[in-house]
Amino acid sequence: MPGFDEHAQQRLAQALKAEARRLGFDACGISKAEPLDEEARRLEAWLKAGYHGTMYWMERHFDKRIDPTRLVEGARSVISVLHNYYQPVAHDPSPETGKISRYAWGDDYHEVLKEKLYQLFAWLEAQVGEVHGRAFVDSAPVMDKAWARRSGLGWIGKNTNLINRRMGSFFFIGELIVDVPLPPDGPIPDYCGTCTRCIDACPTGALVQPYVLDARRCISYLTIEHRGDDIPPELQEKMGNWIFGCDICQDVCPWNKFKYATSEPRFMPRPGLPDTPLERWEELDLEAFRQKFRKNAVKRTKFEGFKRNVRIALQNVRRDTLQTPE
């Protein structure tokens, strides 16, 4: 861009991050839009091992997944944002309660983040003129954790989640890929150290080694992405009373001692999502499911998948009750 020198880029980047904070994002970082060569090799090995299970969409558009210029022609920068969703409400500890992952207690994060990313994009256009770019929130083949790591917003932990030193890992990630040159922020070190709490706590052994997740064993994958009733019995028995997602590897992570309450009211828990008994979820019919989870992430599992999850959780609770001595 004519007259857009290094100092102007620095000023723009600082102002962009300030605007991101004003819009409610908890962190914003920038990386250069270039091929993810190292990450591509790891992704290819992960796919060849079959760890993605039935998420066949992860095999498609591989070239776009590793190269942002295939998604946005002329892309120069990837702007990554984090949005905290943590709510200071505890999961109901009763085993008879259907446990839903904390990120799905409020409104669908796709809509909330996209709305704010569009506002940030409009702000950027107001500063520099016409911008060619796109906003992404789990909506295209974008390796969001890889870009957030490259932009210095955190490191990929042993549980394969992005971890931020200031806020832990209870946050959503979004991106703007744009043709505006901006000074990149460098990555930060890995601060997991010798800790293996996430690996030790995973009931299904989905973390087959540090930094490697076998999604086929992951409770989040089994309750959300996996379709059908062919979940192996030995995994069903370890799913406990989780009926959508799983927070175990985040709950045990020491870095989440720095978590704090979200400022976004749309992420606060909807009535009943943290504490509804399984037997009440079992009574839910299709129309009630649609009403209850309208504009909510739980709808991703679809009615049949949700009922399957509730059925498995009830079997686990009843089995454990029979095995508990009086």
From TrEMBL:
Cofactor: [4Fe-4S] cluster; cob(II)alamin
Sequence ranges assigned to domain 4Fe-4S ferredoxin-type in this UniProt record: 182-212
Top EC class for this record: oxidoreductase
Cofactor comment: Binds 2 [4Fe-4S] clusters per monomer.
Keywords: 4Fe-4S, Cobalamin, Cobalt, Cytoplasm, Iron, Iron-sulfur, Metal-binding, Oxidoreductase, Queuosine biosynthesis, tRNA processing
GO molecular function: 4 iron, 4 sulfur cluster binding; cobalamin binding; epoxyqueuosine reductase activity; metal ion binding
Cleavable signal peptide: none
Catalytic reaction equation(s): epoxyqueuosine(34) in tRNA + AH2 = queuosine(34) in tRNA + A + H2O
Positions of [4Fe-4S] cluster 2 binding: 202, 218, 246, 249
Main location: cytoplasm
InterPro entries from the UniProt entry: 4Fe4S_Fe-S-bd (IPR017896), 4Fe4S_Fe_S_CS (IPR017900), QueG (IPR004453), QueG_DUF1730 (IPR013542)
Pfam families linked to this entry: Fer4_16 (PF13484), QueG_DUF1730 (PF08331)
BP GO annotations: tRNA queuosine(34) biosynthetic process
Catalytic residue positions: 138
Cell location: Cytoplasm
Binding site for cob(II)alamin: 65, 138, 159, 162, 173, 220, 246-247
Pathway noted in the entry: tRNA modification; tRNA-queuosine biosynthesis
GO cellular component terms given for this protein: cytoplasm
UniProt: [4Fe-4S] cluster 1 binding residues: 192, 195, 198, 253
E.C. code: 1.17.99.6
Origin: domain of life: Bacteria
Subunit structure: Monomer.
Family the entry assigns: Belongs to the QueG family.
Chain's role: Catalyzes the conversion of epoxyqueuosine (oQ) to queuosine (Q), which is a hypermodified base found in the wobble positions of tRNA(Asp), tRNA(Asn), tRNA(His) and tRNA(Tyr).
Name of the molecule in the record: Epoxyqueuosine reductase
Species of provenance: Rhodothermus marinus (strain ATCC 43812 / DSM 4252 / R-10)
